[in-house]
Amino acid sequence: MTLLFQLTLYLYLLATAVYVVHFLSQHKQVRAAARGILLTGGILHTVYFVARYVAAGHTPLTSNHEAVSFFAWSMTWAFLSFWWRYRVKNFGVFVSPLISLLMLIAAFSSQEMAPLPPALRSNWLPVHASLAIMANGFMAMAFCGGVMYLLQEREIKKKKFGIFYSRLPSLEALDNLNQHCLALGFLLLTLGIITGSVWAKQAWGAYWQWDPKETWSLITWLIYAAILHQRLTVGWRRRRAAIMAIAGFGAVLFTLWGVTYLLGGVHSYVG
Amino acid sequence: MLAESIVIIGVNHKTAPVAVREKLAFSGDCAGPLLTLMNIEGCRECCFLSTCNRVEVIFVAGDPAAAAVAVRGFLFAKSGLADAEAQQYSYIYQGRNAVEHLYHVAASLDSMVVGEPQILGQLKQAYREATEQKTTGVILNRLLHKSFSVAKRVRTETNIGGSAVSISYAAVQLAKKIFGSLRDKSVLLVGAGEMAELAAEHLVKQGIGRVVVANRTLERAAKLARQFNGTAVGLAELTTQLAEVDILISSTGATDLILRKDEVKPLMRQRKNRPLFLIDIAVPRDLDPELNDLDNVYLYDIDDLKNVVDVNKAEREKEALRAEGIVAEEVVKFGQWLEGMELAPTITAIRQKANGIREAEVAKTLSVLKSLSENERRSVEMLANAIVNKLLHEPMVFLKNTTPHDNPQLKLAFVRQLFGLDKESPEQ
Predict the structure, then answer these.
(1) Percentage of chain B lying above the pLDDT 90 cut
(2) Does a cis peptide bond (omega within 30 degrees of 0) precede residue B284?
């Protein structure tokens, strides 16, 4: 099983390298190769999850390794699904390094399988955890879109056309990408918080108990709610929306790791 | 040599000034010229291309030197120039050079603006008319089809047509990088100068949704607006309009700035931060340079656009070098095909192909029938040999026997196709 994980990691790293080559050379065949490698990685990654599920006997979303690896998995499949419906030029070269980075973090965390504490034994575990982490996946994509927007905007504004101008899509397309990812991510995040709350009621008898993870999820949720609200009302779009998507992703990361390692609480991983 | 029978004679913007080119003046369809050309003694195939920058005759002739004089005479018939002068203003390419030249033309490497895409369409049109008049044969059919695919290769493998090399087009390209599709966007022309008109024309061609013209004199504004199916407004409405439109092109003769930063700043809130692309092509400038500091406002003046164009031109020259590589490669390939289009190489190629099949099949069969004696093995080999030779006999006789009415190239092409001798290259 470790081998399966290692193989997935190497495929992601390779896909990243090939995406970089494509970004510089812009040969279509290279892009097709990169996508093929990423797709293979995504499939192996899925197999790895199933194998781990079978071995552990419960949904493998309870340790840092599992959560981060699932985070990367969500990004991979969200990105690949974009290819089907919603193509963005040269998006891959920005998304794949982030996927690889997450997988490296997963690789360096403990991969041990701990028994599930009684409190977590519930059908809500897969629903709540996967929704919350998939939300992260889309927020990460919005982050990539925000970075791309700022890079492209900088070249247009400064009138100095470097490597990004011809390779990145139009500002409009990047802004739409941002909105698309944020809206989907926000929906998933909302569902994640609601399911978590329902589960908390069942497990602990209270919908909300200001556990640090809950508090920070709420803060993250409020940040994204503000972004989407401002966008619709006073027109926080374009440059400011891109900056906010990047900042919002900071809150996502803090909720994922900062809370666990700095603040503790019931959400701390089993491992 | 077959290759030497391909000739191109032409006049283009490099060899003849417009004063000479306009005297040649071929207009309308090519049917007339094509038929005249086919009547030239020894001219077997021809194609006639006439655009505003060039007139070319591509032909295949048994006696190229004699035909060339006649073709040149035809080209310059209306100009009243003597052949000596005509030679000065025209170029002639033969064989390999002719192939190379045609590839250059098709790939837009020989154009006035290198990389402009129209020439390929014009060449395709010329070829279509030639096929309608049935003036092309085996050689020109393949040559022209090849030139189209070379042009396509150059276009996809290099970035030769990728960057804008005129100011108005550079502005359109920038607009597309900011707005993506221009379909639901609108442009405001302030001042009705020629440059503004040109840029607006490009934008309309790219499908811009709405055109508004603002001018000091409303009459001129109305006239220009009609041309683009737009609306005309007075200059006083500038800021109200600016709250709505996405692109502004300013080209007034005003000596002072007509739009300042603090006038636009409050508008951006009203616009809900929808981006604004300001293009200032007036000298002296119309728009406050500080406008570029506002969020979601992009201001380009004439010098900025010129810089974009200069960078793009340099880029095109670099790409043209890469395109030369592709052309050279394809010229060699065509040369190989031409060499094969003679009798002896075709016969050799058929023999080689048949022998290859025979040897492979015999080896396959013998490897299964291991129990055969030496004599029996020899019999199998002889059997295969006999079948191959007898099957090939009639085609060989057909190829070698020529009657005066035969078209040898057609025959060769037919047989080569029948035996699949030119498989690696895509068929026509």
Answers:
(1) 31
(2) yes
CA angle A8, A12, A16 (to 5 degrees): 170
Pick from B159, B177, B275: CB nearest A165:
B177
> Residue A119 has which token pair?
């409190």
Residues A199, A266 contacting (CB under 8 angstroms):
no
Tell me how far apart the terminal alpha carbons of chain B are, to the nearest angstrom. Answer: 24
Could you identify the residue written with the tokens 């701390």?
A268
The whole-number pLDDT of residue B92 equals 93
Residue percentage of chain A with pLDDT more than 70: 97
**Dihedral of alpha carbons B355, B357, B358, B363, sign:** positive
CB A228 within 8 A of CB A139: no
Taking residue B115's Cβ as centre, other Cβ atoms within 10 Å add up to 26
**Dihedral angle of Cα A189, A191, A196, A199, to the nearest 10 degrees:** -170
> Which residue from B392, B395, B381 is spatially nearest to B354, judged by alpha carbons?
B392
3-state secondary structure (DSSP) of residue B299? strand
Sign of CA dihedral B292, B298, B299, B302: positive
Does residue B49 sit in helix, strand or coil?
strand
The pLDDT score that the predictor gives to residue A270 is 45
B47 is catalytic: no
How confident is the model at residue A162, as a pLDDT? 82
Is residue B389 pLDDT above 80, yes or no? yes
Kindly list the distances between the CA atom of residue A210 and the CA atoms of A125, A251, A265, B252, in Å, as whole numbers in the listed order. Answer: 19, 17, 10, 63
Query: Quick one: tokens of B198?
Result: 């040109």
Residue of higher predicted confidence among A213 and A150: A150
Task: Specify the 3-state DSSP secondary structure of B9.
Answer: strand
- The C-alpha angle A178, A183, A187, rounded to 5 degrees, equals 150
In chain A, what are the helix, strand and coil shares in percent, each to the nearest 5? 80, 0, 20
> Collapsing DSSP states into helix, strand and coil, what is residue A59?
coil
- Contacts (Cβ under 8 Å, ≥6 apart) of A172: B178, B179, B180, B181
pLDDT of residue B427: 40
Which of A89, A151, A155, A159 has the most B C-beta neighbours within 10 Å, making it the best mutation to test the interface with B? A159
Residues B220-238 as b/e (b if ≥16 CB within 10 A, e otherwise) read: ebbebbeebebbbbebeeb
Helix axes B31-38, B64-75, angle to 10 degrees: 150
pLDDT at B424 over 60: no
The tokens for B380 are: 């199998």
Q: Are A254 and A216 in contact (CB under 8 A)?
A: yes
Q: Of B389, B412, B195, B414, nearest to B283 (Cα)?
A: B195
- Distance (Å) of CA B271 to CA A235, B239, B265, B276: 8, 12, 10, 9
First to last CA, chain A: 18
Which chain B residues touch A if contact means CB-CB below 8 Å?
Answer: 159, 162-163, 174, 176-181, 269, 271-275, 292, 295-296, 298, 300, 304, 307-308, 311
* Chain A residues within 8 A of B162 when measuring between CB atoms: 166
d(CA A106, CA A120): 22
Contact partners, residue B424, CB within 8 Å, separation at least 6: none
Q: Report CA B337 to chain centroid distance, whole Å.
A: 23
A159 to B271: CB separation less than 8 angstroms, yes or no: no
Residues from chain A that touch B271, judged by Cβ atoms under 8 A, are 235
DSSP assignment of B222-269 equals HHHHHHTT-EEEEGGGHHHHHTT-SEEEE----SS-SB-HHHHHHHHH
